Amino acid sequence: MTFTLAADAEMLYHDRLFVERVARIHDQGFQVEIWDWTAKDIKELRGTGAVSHQ
Length: 54
Hints:
Number of helices: 2
Mean pLDDT: 90
Helix content: 25-40%
Strand order of the largest sheet: 1-2
Oligomer: single chain
Number of strands: 2
Structural class: alpha+beta
Shape: globular
Largest sheet: 2 strands, parallel
């Protein structure tokens, strides 16, 4: 059995802008969890290359 780990961008790195949090989590090799994606700039988030946890 394998697991894919996701880190919650809402809970980590509060000292950074949200898009920077997403990029940092992605750069560390994790998928990214976002609570309310409707309140985020999706185009900006896509630019990070991150994959959302589903």
